[in-house]
Amino acid sequence: MMSVIPGSEDLYLFHEGSLYQSYKVMGAQFTEHEGTRGVRFTVWAPHAREVRVIGDFNFWNGSGHTLNRVSTWGVWSLFVPGVGEGEYYKYEIVTSHGTTVWKADPYAFYSELKPGTASRVYDLDGYEWKDQAWQESKRQHSAYNRPMNIYEVHMGTWKKKAEGEYYTYRELADELIDYVAHMGYTHIELLPLAEHPYDRSWGYQATGYYAVTSRFGTPKDFMYFVDRCHQTGIGVIMDWVPGHFVKDDHGLRQFDGEALYEYNDPQRAEKPEWGTLSFDFTKPEVISFLISNALFWLDKYHIDGLRVDAVASLLYLNFGKPREAWTTNEHGGDENPEAIDFLKKLNQAVFARYPQALMMAEDSSDWPLVTAPVYAGGLGFNYKWNMGWMNDMLKYMELDPLFRKGSHNLLTFSIMYTYSENYVLPLSHDEVVHGKKSLLNKMPGDYWQKFANLRALYGYMMGHPGKKLLFMGGEFGQFDEWKDLEDLDWEMLGYDSHRGMQHYVRDLNHLYLQERSLWELDHRPEGFSWIDPNDNDQSIASFIRMSSDPDDFLIIVCNFTPVTHIGFRIGVPRAGEYVERFNSDIPVYGGSGQMNISPLLTENQSWHYQPYSLRMTIPPLATVVLKPAKLRRKAGTAKRERG
Predict the structure, then answer these.
(1) Host H or E run for residue 565
(2) Cα–chain center distance at 71
(3) Which residues of 24-33 are buried (b: 16+ CB within 10 A; e: fewer)?
(4) How far apart are CA 78 and CA 92, in angstroms?
(5) Using CA atoms in the order 153, 22, 308, 274, what is the torsion angle rounded to 10 degrees?
(6) Are 242 and 344 in contact (CB under 8 A)?
(7) How would you label 630-642 residue by residue, b for 16+ Cβ within 10 Å and e otherwise?
(8) What's the mean pLDDT when you consider all of the chain?
(9) Are 526 and 470 in contact (CB under 8 A)?
C-alpha cells in the first residue's frame, strides 16, 4: 500500500533528476490510510507560499485541504479521504507574490473534456492486457532487419461521424486497425495524444503530458485500442513532444507563479516560431518529469516507441528564433548542452527498460551520430527521419519531367549518406498542410500523369533503403491537402483513379512484406547496389536490393518521364530467367498497361558493369520490379512478416 507521504528516497531521486517513474509518486495516487481509501495529491511547486487541492469533493474550496511541504525543494503532498475515481480537481497555488492561480495537475492521468481544463482522478490499474504474444515476438526480433511500414494518423480527422463527432478509441479500434492491417502496414504512428487545449495544434502543444486526451474516451479505452493493435500484429508509435509546451494559464507556464518548467531567462524560454515555451533542461525535476513521461507511455499503455518531435529545436538554442533573440551557451556556441545531455539520458533510460523500443528522432539538422549509441558518442536514438531524402524527392517530383534530367542528383544523392544513420523515409503530415498541397497535387502533368507520378514515387520509396512512413490519405491519393478540422475525403474512392491508387498502395505494401530484400539489410551497404544511377537524360534509376541470401534479390527500375521504352537493355548480376514481380503501370492501378508479361531471358552481354543483361519494357512514369524466376515462385508462398 502506498504511503500517505512520498518516501524520502523517491523525493531525493526526483530532485536529483533520476526518478524515472515519478508518475508513481507525483499527481493523484489512490491509497489507503488507517482503513480509509482516498487519494494522495503530490505536486512540485517550490516557489509557492501555499498549495491547496480543490475539486468536486470540497466544492472547489481548498481552505480545508492545504498540502504539506514534504521536501526542502518544494514538493507538497496531502492525503484526502473519500475521493473517488473520475472526480475533477486542480491545484490552488498561492504564489510568492501573494496572488492565487488554479493549475491542472502536471501528472494527471485524465483530463476534463475540452473546453474544460480540470484534471480528473483516475486509476490506471486493472486493465487486462491480451498482447502477450506480441510482446514475446518483440523480444525475439530486432527492428533493424524486420519490415517497418508506418501509417501516420491524426485520430481526430481520419474519419468523423456524420454529425462531425469524433470516433472513440474503441470505435477506431474496430475500424482503423482492420483497415491498417488490410492495407499491409506494420505500424500506426499517432500524432500526439497528450491532452491539449487547441485542436489545431494537433497535440503538439500539450498541457497534460500524462493524460491521454479525453477527446476520444478514457485512458482504458486507449489501452483497448493499443491492445487490439497488438493482437492484430500492428505496432504503435506515438509522437512525443519534449521540446516545448503551450502557454495556456492552466498548464505548466509559470506553474507556481514563477518560471518552473520553463527557463528562468525569457530569451531562452520563448519559442517564438510556435508561441510556446521550452522546457528548462537544467532543472533536475524537469528531467525526472520528462524521462518518466516517455517511460510512462511504454509502461502503462504498451506503446512500442516514440517519435521525438523537433529534435533540432532541442539541439540548438536559436532554432527558429529571429537574430535579435539569439543566445549562446557558455562556450559561445549555438548548441544546447543541457538538452543534448537530456536526450542521451532519455534514450539510455528507455533502452535500459525496453531494449526493443523504437526511439525515432524527427531531426531536420545535420547533427552527426543521432542513431549511434551514447557510449559511442551518439545521441542514442535507434531511428532518424530522413528529412533530406524527403525534401530532395519532393523537390524532384514537383519538377516537370522535361526538366528532371537537370536535377537527377536529387534522386540519387541520398544513397551517399543513407548508411550514416538508421533512417525512416517519411512522407508525413507536415508535407501536406498549410498550403503545401497534397502529395497527389504536388505532382506535375495532367490528371493521369499526376497519379502515375505518385505511383512512381511510392515505388521508388519502397525500393530505397530505410523504413517507410506515409500520412493518412496519401494511400488513396487525396487531392486536397490535409484539412485538419475535417475527415479525409473518403468519397474519392468512388472514382476509379483514387480506388486504383489505394489498390496499388495495398499491393505495394504487401510486396514489401513478402520480399525480404526490401527490408532485411536496410541499414547495411550490402543490401543495395546501383545498376545505373547516372541515366540523367532518360531520368531512369535502376538498382538491386538484396537480402542475406545472395540468391534472393530484386531488380528495381524507376522511370520518371512519360516515355515508354521497349527493349530497354539493363544489366543484371545473374544469368537466367527474370519475371516481373511488380509493375505500377498495370491497368487495375490506373496505368497504361505496359508490362513484361513473358519471362525475360538474360544474354551473355555485360551491361551497366553487370556480367549479364536483359531487354525489358519500361512503362511511362512507373516503377517495375523484376525477380529471378525460381525465386518468384517462392515469394508467392511467403508469409506476411511483421516487426
Answers:
(1) strand 565-572
(2) 37
(3) ebbbbbbeee
(4) 13
(5) 90
(6) no
(7) ebbeebeeeeebb
(8) 95
(9) no
CA atoms within 13 A on the CB side of 189: 26
Amino acid at 95: T
Question: What's the whole-number mean pLDDT along residues 554-579?
Answer: 98
Q: Report which DSSP code applies to 176.
A: H
Give a three-class secondary structure readout of 402-468. Answer: HHHHHHHHHHHHHHHCCCCCCEEEEECHHHCCCCCCCHHHHCCCCHHHHHHHHHHHHHHHHHCCCEE
- The pTM (predicted TM-score) of the whole model is 0.95
Helix (H, G, I), strand (E, B) or coil at 502: helix
Give φ, ψ of 572 to 5 degrees: -135, 155
CB neighbour class for 237 (10 Å; exposed up to 12, middle 13-18, buried from 19):
buried
Nearest to 339 by CA among 355, 322, 372, 363: 363
The helix or strand, by DSSP H or E, that contains position 32, with its residue range, turns out to be: strand 27-33
Q: Residue holding cell 557558455? A: 330
Report the DSSP beta bridge partners of residue 578: 600, 628
pLDDT at 2: 65
235 neighbors 187 (Cβ within 8 angstroms): yes
For β-strands 540-546 and 194-195, DSSP reports them as: unpaired
Q: Catalogue the active-site residues.
A: 309, 362
Cell 536496410, residue located: 522
- 279, β-bridge pairs: 262
Which positions ≥6 away from 567 have C-beta within 8 Å? 615, 616, 617
Quote the CA–CA distance of 173 and 34 in Å, as a whole number: 42
Distance in angstroms (rounded) separating the CA atoms of residues 303 and 298: 5
Q: How far apart are CA 573 and CA 602, in angstroms?
A: 10
Task: Please state, in angstroms and rounded to a whole number, the distance separating the CA atoms of residues 367 and 620.
Answer: 38
pLDDT in tens, 62-109: 999 999 999 999 999 999 999 999 999 999 999 999 999 999 999 999
All cell numbers assigned to 501: 491508387
Angle, helices 496-514 vs 169-183, to 10°: value is 70
Residue 510 to residue 499: CA distance in whole angstroms: 17
Q: What is the DSSP letter of 610?
A: B
Number of residues assigned to the chain: 643
Task: Give me the pLDDT at residue 365, please.
Answer: 94
**Residue 164 — pLDDT band, cuts 50, 70, 90?**
confident
Q: What confidence score (pLDDT) does residue 631 get? A: 56
30: left (phi > 0), else alpha (psi -120 to 50), else beta? beta
User: DSSP of 361-399, one letter per residue?
Assistant: E---S--TTTTS-GGGTS---SEEE-HHHHHHHHHHHTS
The interaxial angle of helices 169-183 and 219-231, nearest 10 deg, is 20
Rounded to whole angstroms, the Cα distance separating 633 from 630 reads: 6
